[in-house]
Amino acid sequence: MVSCDLTFEVEEPADIVLHIAAANSWVVHTERLDVATDGKALPAPVELATPHGGRLHLLRTPRGILSVSYRAELTASPDSAGQPAAAIRRDLPDLAQLTYLRASRYCPSDQAVGFAVAEFGHLPPGRARVEAITQWIEHRVGYVPGSSNVHSSATDVLLTGQGVCRDFAHLGITLCRALQIPARFAAVYAPGLAPMDFHAVFEAWFDGAWWTYDATRRAPRKGMVRVATGRDATDTAFLNVLRGIIALRSIEVTATVSGVLPLDDNLALHRLR
Amino acid sequence: MVSCDLTFEVEEPADIVLHIAAANSWVVHTERLDVATDGKALPAPVELATPHGGRLHLLRTPRGILSVSYRAELTASPDSAGQPAAAIRRDLPDLAQLTYLRASRYCPSDQAVGFAVAEFGHLPPGRARVEAITQWIEHRVGYVPGSSNVHSSATDVLLTGQGVCRDFAHLGITLCRALQIPARFAAVYAPGLAPMDFHAVFEAWFDGAWWTYDATRRAPRKGMVRVATGRDATDTAFLNVLRGIIALRSIEVTATVSGVLPLDDNLALHRLR
Amino acid sequence: MVSCDLTFEVEEPADIVLHIAAANSWVVHTERLDVATDGKALPAPVELATPHGGRLHLLRTPRGILSVSYRAELTASPDSAGQPAAAIRRDLPDLAQLTYLRASRYCPSDQAVGFAVAEFGHLPPGRARVEAITQWIEHRVGYVPGSSNVHSSATDVLLTGQGVCRDFAHLGITLCRALQIPARFAAVYAPGLAPMDFHAVFEAWFDGAWWTYDATRRAPRKGMVRVATGRDATDTAFLNVLRGIIALRSIEVTATVSGVLPLDDNLALHRLR
Amino acid sequence: MVSCDLTFEVEEPADIVLHIAAANSWVVHTERLDVATDGKALPAPVELATPHGGRLHLLRTPRGILSVSYRAELTASPDSAGQPAAAIRRDLPDLAQLTYLRASRYCPSDQAVGFAVAEFGHLPPGRARVEAITQWIEHRVGYVPGSSNVHSSATDVLLTGQGVCRDFAHLGITLCRALQIPARFAAVYAPGLAPMDFHAVFEAWFDGAWWTYDATRRAPRKGMVRVATGRDATDTAFLNVLRGIIALRSIEVTATVSGVLPLDDNLALHRLR
Predict the structure, then answer these.
(1) Would you call A161 and D117 a contact, using CB atoms and an 8 Å cutoff?
(2) A1, D147, D173, D174: which sits with the fewest CB atoms below 10 Å from its CB?
(3) What is the per-residue pLDDT for C92?
């Protein structure tokens, strides 16, 4: 079960985009998205599909206190991840792989090629490099809430040695891309995370599939539920304001699994659903 | 007629991606893409479609001198740009518009919101702001080959006051996005450009369509032929190397129109084909 | 009367440098600097002279709660500022002027030459440009506590349009230096500032003297008491830790004048004492 | 013997500052500084002393071709470096040491504390860390002319893994300061350098003295002659233009020693004269 409850103060009538629903790579048992201003229900948001199964919700709200409540019960789709990749080890990449090789706002991989090659270039290409990158970040970057901000890029974090989950993911992506490994950002619900919040991990492409890594080691990857996927956090913000003035007042996220959460050594191969 | 002839020295067998063909928003009369290493023709490259009609070509080459020759005769498709936009002035944006609001590697619009609002925020939204941005760039940034490099972002260019066509486009995009106007980068063939080379412009979304602007004023927009479209220059590089070692040795671009090139005041509305 | 009371938690025995005493361009009537750990007085700190009359205090403290209390009653020295400059309008600059033309950590003036010339280059050199810079900052940058951090440079602030007093000063210095006007940073006690805190302004060199500007307009320049002078905030930090672990717990600054605080139009020429 | 011959095209009458003379820590046998415009000798430049024995020369030149010719025969002063430091191992630092702990334009050490501590913090303070930093730079950064520019900072170079002598020195300084080791930049004449040019190294403070390091290993430290000393390259530019328009046309530097140049393992302790 995953859920999030958000409260906003809307000072000027606003058009907003929410990116909080579980991606459709899951079998949905029950799902609700309720939006209301000053307690009065708003029309159902317009849903927009995003790459890799993500779903945006567009919403227009008058002045007042906007409350957003999302909850869903999900089961892993039997034919999605967890099982062997669809064996599409082609010689030449598809467009998604090419796209996720490119430098992006928070992942300026073009600037870090020298560092990445010097630090990891002696390792065999593919999995060995991604694992070494993940362990390097785990050992070298401290998880320090408040140490970074919305403008911080992966190179800032490499240098200061401090960040939060999105920074860890940005740094992993940047070092992968600098070594010509396609890598992308995933926002997730993460059962077991403490304190509970939205979480972020990265996915790297090798051996014909996207594999998930989380250098923060703050939650087992097996329970994670994909929300949004993209080049970096610019593509996965849980709120975008298109018009109007709106301020977040409270946020509460939950994510649980039925049964016991699996341990995670953080290096075994895992594919995010 | 557009063409480009590229020569590369391939030091290690290489997989490369070319982004040089005219986008398929044109009616193609004749088109050839010839690739050869040391004078011996290579198998035809694999073509991959990219957003907005672009076409990538993937290619594997052995060691040697790789020559790439592309030429095409084109006519504007009667039902594409030039005519009124398809009148889709909806209240809420589609995914492309949302995507092109986001900060990107060379267009860190999140960092320039204060500057953009202070400089242009008093103008009416939409076209007036985009025109003011284009004129501001034209008056404030000098076209100086060699003044920027592959790592230069739009904010560098705003501060140094110097750049080349891609920098002008990046700055236009950045200021638009900072004002919540979707904006994207387009690589083009540009008849009339002197000295002739690949060229870059930007497109901004307002009044239900993408409109083209070129703050360099170095070629009339009417003759331009779209090659690639994206968030910024990361998405439109004419060459990406996936594997191997390869160095550009020469480049020759031509772009001509039959008849007389139109004058361009650079502010009349224009939609890039 | 100026004073500051600082409390620190010293976790590991520490060597620290305090930069809190009024510069010796003032006639001191009474002055006390008391330092104690867990209530027990420490030996008197070693005083070190810094450029432009500043005074550092070096201090060694054991573990515990360190309290620092400084207060001084001062009168403006009759032969210092306020009166005409010492008429050293030489054709060629002295070393201080050369030094304060150079780019520094928070004032990367080399990066902003193009912007500064385009925005202010049409004005006559000297005072007119400095005044225009000060007014530009006043109108374009919002005073927003928490909007910047210890890594923020003047170019960040120019773009985001937000900062605090040190950022306003950094931006003034940067734009001056980019126009070949020597400019430096001054940390001051500022009677009338609300909320009371340490304050920062900048000084620009023209017409044979250093003139003070404060684009924040948050306190009259006439009452200000110089503490430290330098290239930027790196030279004027009120605390530097050389060894050990120490954390600021509280800070209380006061600065008052006897009599009524003068109004300040912020553009009349003023020399900081 | 050291010399340099510079030719400039002066387009607008200019005031310039030259920083090319050997520092006065040397015994001068013969020394000449000739300046002429269009072959006509100019008045002798005004000499200005800079910290650590440096000497600036201020000069006014009309339009035309300015030629500057400096040459000097020098002997190491018997009481300067090479011999043991003046044993001033005091507990608390002097102002120079404090100054050279501070972040500067090209050495943003505040941004790299986390990286420096993670990479070098396990080593004993002082010499061991400076040597490890020097070796790290030597192994990790490639000497690639043209790879950096006048805006490149040490953190750019750490990430790109490429630079020239000033970048190597900036990176050494940055990592030292991030570990609380005072470090400064020195511009030098360097006999044995190939190709011959001005050179730059860094000096770190430990065990009561400033010790010289050159991570480029491109010339033996023993033959080097100090020209200028400062926080970074901003303090040591061989040319500053205060007024006017002037462009460098040619530069020729020579630096030779009588006798055989000593080998240099680059780690033995050395103090720059």
Answers:
(1) yes
(2) A1
(3) 60
pLDDT tens figures, D118-164: 999 999 999 999 999 999 999 999 999 999 999 999 999 999 999 99
Burial (CB count <10 Å: 0-12, 13-18, 19+), residue B6: buried
| Residue listed under structure tokens 């986008």 | B23
- Distance CA(C197)–CA(C217), nearest Å, equals 14
User: Does B139 sit within 8 Å of C115, measured CB to CB?
Assistant: no
- Closest to C210 (Cα-Cα) out of C75, C99, C103: C99
Task: Provide the 10 A C-beta neighbour count for residue A176.
Answer: 29
How far from each other are the two terminal CA atoms of chain B, in whole angstroms?
Answer: 14
How would you write B56-115 as a 3-class SS string?
EEEEEECCEEEEEEEEEEEEECCCCCCCCCCCCCCCCCCHHHHHCCCCECCECHHHHHHH
Q: What is the pTM of this model?
A: 0.94
pLDDT value for D88: 42
Is residue C215 packed enough to be buried (19+ CB in 10 Å), middle (13-18) or exposed (0-12)?
buried
Is the CB of residue D101 less than 8 Å away from at least one CB of chain C?
Answer: yes
> Which residues of chain B have a CB within 8 Å of the CB of A150?
110
Q: Could you tell me the maximum CA-CA distance found in chain A, to the nearest angstrom?
A: 60
**Contact D48/C102, CB-based, under 8 Å?**
no
| D148 phi/psi in degrees, rounded to 5 | -125, 170
On the 0-12 / 13-18 / 19+ scale of CB atoms within 10 A, A32 is: exposed
Residues of chain B with pLDDT under 50: 81-89
| pLDDT at residue C90, as a whole number | 52
The helix/strand/coil state of C246 is strand
**DSSP single-letter state for residue A82:** T
Question: CA–CA separation, C122 vs A113, rounded Å?
Answer: 42
CB contact under 8 A, A49 and B95: yes
What is the value of ipTM here, to two decimals?
0.93
For chain D, the C-alpha Rg in angstroms (whole number) is 19
The answer to whether A202 touches A169, Cβ cutoff 8 Å, is yes
Six token digits for residue C129: 């440009």
Comparing C-alpha atoms, which of C227, C228, C220, C231 is closest to residue C257? C220
Q: Which residues of D touch A155 (CB under 8 A)?
A: 155, 159
Residue C3 in contact with residue C31, Cβ under 8 Å?
Answer: no
Q: What percent of chain D has pLDDT over 70?
A: 94
- Closest in B155, B158, B161 to C117, CB measured: B161
Mean pLDDT across chain C: 92
**D218 near D165, Cβ under 8 Å?**
yes
Q: Which residues of B touch C162 (CB under 8 A)?
A: 114
C-beta separation of A258 from A73 below 8 A: no
CA-to-CA distance for B172 and B185, rounded, in angstroms?
9
Measured in angstroms, the CA of B158 and the nearest CA of chain A are apart by 17
Tell me if D169 sits within 8 A of D141, measured CB to CB.
no
What separation in angstroms does the CA of B30 have from each of A39, B19, B71, B76, C260?
63, 18, 8, 13, 85
Q: Where are the alpha helices (DSSP H) in chain D?
A: 95-99, 113-120, 127-140, 154-160, 165-178
Closest CA to B236 of B36, B44, B52, B35: B52
Cα dihedral sign, B206-B207-B209-B212? negative
Give residues with Cβ within 8 angstroms of D259, minimum separation 6: none
Rounded distance between C-alpha atoms, residue B118 and residue B137, angstroms? 15
Count of beta carbons in the 10 Å neighbourhood of residue C158: 27
What's the token pair of residue C71? 């207060």
Which residues of B are less than 8 Å from A50 in CB distance?
95
Q: Are B216 and B167 spatial neighbours (Cβ–Cβ below 8 Å)?
A: no
| Cβ of residue C139 closer than 8 Å to a chain B Cβ | yes
Tokens, residue A254: 């939950």
